[in-house]
Queue: 3 jobs
Job 1
Amino acid sequence: MKTYKPRTPGVRHLRRPINDHLWKGKPYAKLTFAKIGHGKGGRNNSGRVVMRHRGGGHRRRIRTVDYVRSAPGKHIVERIEYDPNRSAHLALLESVKTKEKSYIIAAEGMRAGDTVESFLSGVPRDLLVSMGGVMDPGMLAAKTAFRGNCLPMHMVPLGTQIYNVGSTAGKGAVFCRSAGTYATVIGKEETGSEAKKKVKVVIVRLQSGEVRKVDKDACATIGVSSNPHWQFRQLGKAGRSRWLNIRPTVRGLAMNAADHPHGGGRGKSKGNVHPVSIWGTPAKGGYKTRKKRNPNKYVVKERPRNQGKRKRDN
């Protein structure tokens, strides 16, 4: 982490990850569009505030990220870029064959000049020839499971760390897209006889501890998402938070009675009510909101919940 000499109060507590390898120019313009309109202020299409504490902030351009990675063939990493819209870094790729450019979420350790490839559309003929025409799983993993390569889930070896994990075949990644996140492949459900076994579904463990099933043809990228030290950053001052489009959060206790259940009264008094949100939902004490009668059938094991209490050592 980079720290600063406290020449001003705003930089005394400023902490930033050191990322000297990032591109210092502008983004690739053809893959961006401006973020405009009242959606920046947390409003929906009818103008109502649906996400509080949003507004202001620096101008941004949205980068169009390829979460599907369906294009086959080798791609060269041109550069690693900062993206103001997410915690992870982006990699600008160029196809060797078609010269088309695309953005993907960069893997930790990925640098300009690296070569990555997607195997979602199948194993290339030249790779099959190099293995002697036989589809050996161990040999295939040794030749495809490299950092930044996109594989269907059934081709990923057990115990491999992956990010940009999809849930459904033919659709983009939905899990492990933030900085420093990854999932681990822990099992594969197979069907058929010993001679003709086929993978039916793949089981992954997410960083929250949740274990869930994903489709055998869903996408996954080998490696860990870039910028893992992002979680240790410190903004240093309130103004830096405003630059990031984040507005202040006011305590309910400090509001008027018309604005919050905890508001009003003489002095600091919340009126002998249990802690609730601004809409009246209980905020503490392990209040559950998930339906018992309609569990998620793809979740094998739910993430551990300790309801705000300290974890036991047992």
Job 2
Amino acid sequence: MLSGGSDGVIVLYDLENSSRQPYYTCKAVCSVGRNHPDVHKYSVETVQWYPHDTGMFTSSSFDKTLKVWDTNTLQTADVFSFEETVYSHHMSPVATKHCLVAVGTRGPKVQLCDLKSGSCSHILQVMFAGHRQEILAVSWSPRCEYVLATASADSRVKLWDVRRASGCLITVDQHNGKKSQAVESANTAHNGKVNGLCFTSDGLHLLTVGTDNRMRLWNSSNGENTLVNYGKVCNDSRKGLKFTVSYGCSAEFVFVPYGSTIAVYTIYSGEQITMLKGHYKSVDCCVFRSNFQELYSGSRDCNILAWVPSLSEPVPDDDETTTKSQLNPAFEDAWSSSDEEG
């Protein structure tokens, strides 16, 4: 597992539980430390493995760079430099015909870096305009390798086809076109900054979160607001918020940082299943490991916690006559709210 810190350091962890104990500590295999000549100068905002080969990974930082790393040597293979602070980047998990890295920066344009041509071409001239403020989150569709979603501080979420000169396919509208274009909130996704987005595993829907404390689910083919109500989803992050969805569960879940906890919702009903408690400072990011049905969360308390599914939950202490755990149907293939986990 890759992790990036606010100090610019990148650490690689071995996730194997060699102890076979229920509670264990993952070992750090190696790191790009403060003394490394190519270490990021400021906070690392995003790290990602090259989707087809773990021999390479990428990182981006507030130091205005995107770096491509050789995993074996921990040396940079390429560096892309930007004029603005970098908030987020993403490589397509399904692309076979391009090696584009989408980058969101403090500028209002979506920027694309081509790993095939390298930094000699710097940043592609195809920079899509359309947003009015900084781009806080970017994500490629897992369904179509040319479709890119972007979220901005201008309250808008856009879907792009990077093959098209005009670029923009859809600007989603929280009102589904039912309000006049003269209304200030027309063609906006949220009533505040949109600082996180995530496609569902099949790519048919897109989830977004905003500083209006709302999460919304969109049809990714036509941009329709599905109007699923998740209630208040606390979000006071000043930068990108990285949340994730489950893969391979009988019901699909979304995991969202919520203060010092992680809120778990069923995607299509909006029901809040549980709150995962274990961190003691704000959670900034979480990622799902589908092979083992595990969730990992990173927090400002300097800890990364691993969460595993639990099919049973403890019986309340006030019932002294009952000693057995009871199966909670809501947690079949799902998640336990036990404070002991993590």
Job 3
Amino acid sequence: MPAQYPLHPHIVLLSNLTQFSPMLYLTGFPGLETIEHWIFIFFFLMYLVAISGNCFILIIIKTNPHLHTPMYYLLSFLAFTDLGLSVSTLPTTVGIFWFKSHGIYFGACQIQMFCIHSFSFMESSVLLVMSFDRFVAICYPLRYMVIITGQRVVRVGLIVILRGPVALLPIVLLLKAFPYCGTQVLSHSFCLHQEVIHLACTDTTFNNLYGLSLVVFTVMLDLVLIALSYGVILHTVARLASKEERLRAFQTCTSHLCAVLVFFVPMMGLSLVHRFGKHAPPAVHLLMANVYLFVPPMLNPIIYSIKTKEIRHVISKLLG
């Protein structure tokens, strides 16, 4: 169940409804309303870094022909998903913390949750394809150019980008068919399926089971396959003759490994909090959800700008 918060005066009008209401109420940080402008400045800086950083990565790859290689096509897919994830939460976050606008129409809430979950699933899939790219590069270096081609990467990238949205569409559309009752308040500054579904006063077993299956067969399966690929990579690296070769081989994976940790560690933390932290303070739930959605898009362009030699070289040319 979502965390409970003191009722805001604007919610009273919603609390007596027993059928579908076109409006929901988004929560910022309860109890911190007096400093919401300062909170927004912090969020604004994260948005600024995330949006400008990922746009910068996309522009660099687009305008430098020598970066038109499979590895950088995958990096552009990652930057695109991070950009989409940042833009998905931007409207309601700005509305709450700057304009004090907490209400959201149910249709807009559906669109936002669809975008947030779709881009999350996309990022998981892109990280999986990137791990396969690193697996082939290290374990089968002589066949890399044959196996990993630009055309194959683009084709696979489009498939994994469409996988999440297509699978999500049924449960997001089904939400509008449910009756809703009680206080229609969401505990974050954005819409998430697992919160909206708790507001329905009818049997939601199908949505719950479908959502769980979707997570298991996309995100969890991706994580298992990524872990297996890195197990094989580590085994291959350990068999290299010299320490320098081992270090050089593993350094080609550091950017991707950091991106995997930045994405999956907050996700697992959020899952643990939802599963075992029912009595944890509401601030803990809010913090974990915001870390999960805001931190990866902000850190990924920084990681790849620091760790990737070709991007560092382009940046140094622009600055020099």
